[in-house]
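Collaborator request, handled under Task 6.
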Amino acid sequence: MPSTLLIKDAVLALPSGPMRSDILCEGHRVVAIGRDLVSDGANVIRANGLTAGPGFIDIHVHGGGGWSFFTRDPGEIRAYRGWAPSRGVTAFLVSTVGPNADTTLEMLGALAQAIGTGSGAEAMGFHLEGPFLNPLRRGAFHPDMLREAVREEFLSYQAAAGGAIRQATFAPELSGGLALCAAIASTAVPAIGHTDATIAEARAAFEMGARHVTHLFNAMRPLHQREGGLIVAALLQDDVTCELVCDAKHVQPDVLRFAYRMLGPNRMVCVTDNLHMAGTGELTGRFGDQDVEISGPAAVRPDGTIVGSIATMDEQFRNVVQILDVDLPTAFRICATNPARVIGEGKRKGVLERGYDADIVLLDGDLQVVTTICRGEIAYCTDGARLS
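Structure tokens returned to the collaborator:
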């Protein structure tokens, strides 16, 4: 018999307004939402007015809690799966790449063991960030890691991953970039990023199947009045979604507000771009062969280049609410619904509705995570008195 979980007296964050309700989960799915639900023998969570929403989904994250995805050790992914629910995350993509082709193949083959299995947050697949990036916009990537766009190389990575690469970031202006885009689109989401693409080059990639942008504004040609590059092309393309790191460091708050004004609630996707130091309190660390230190909510190299964020998804969710001045249903859309839809999981994740995966986060009045449920199992709870 599948396990049964009953959440009593939660407040659902609905577009029509907050609504008090119970939520009944059987096995991995939500099976009923309504008032005065009962189920004999169910495990019970007394939500007592906590806000319930779909668990956060992070499609661009390199680790956290001390666990790194730049590894051959699947144990790092499994450990992260156990830690991530403490930040409200119920599903994620493993964002990684190796220093060279051979190592990347080895990493993907080894880490594939931790995809889609086990307890905690669900590792839904890989986000391959590189190696097909423009050296001019490499950000924190070492130039030796970057190569021209070769479709056969990507296909070898997808084979090593057992088909689990769900998203791949690439620069379309590279030689072979459009052929690579088409190859990615056959099995995954082509995401444009770390790029010096012009408007015309970005639009050519959109015509080849690219529909997503990796961390808008970061590591790309800046907006200029005579050549707006990918930024303008993406904002004007109504069927393109855009990631934004909402830590207020990667992108300044007014620019975040500008992006949201252009993208609206259906095209903006919050991602953390977290490194392994996120959530640890560490002030220094290593990224590849580089020393990094913490500067506010981000990790930076000695020259000031941002390497990644340490603001976890629950922090960025609160930033979305506060900086963008949006309601909770909109914030859940940006942090859960939209990322699920981007990678083709919108029919089972990202929404708190009957028939969907029972991935649920319960938040208090300050939007702090109290309880996280991953596919019907309690993965994190700060208040054991609520459980019975």
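The cover message to the collaborator said: "The mean pLDDT is 96. Residues 56-342 form a domain with the TIM Barrel fold (CATH 3.20.20.140). Please let us know whether this matches your experimental observations."
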